[in-house]
Amino acid sequence: MKKTIKPPLGKKDPPLEKFHFFFIWAARISFLVVLIMAISRGNWGNVALIVFAILLTYLAVAIEKRYAIDIPIEFEISVVVLIFGAIFLGEIQEFYKVFWWWDLILHGFTGLMVGLLGFIILLVLYKGKRINAAPITIALFSFSLAAAIGGVWEIFEFIMDQTFGLNMQKSGLMDTMWDIIVNNVGALVTSIIGYIYLRVGEAPVVSNIVRRFKKDNPKIVNVFDKHTKRTG
Question: Of 95, 124, 159, which residue is a domain's last?
Answer without folding.
Answer: 95
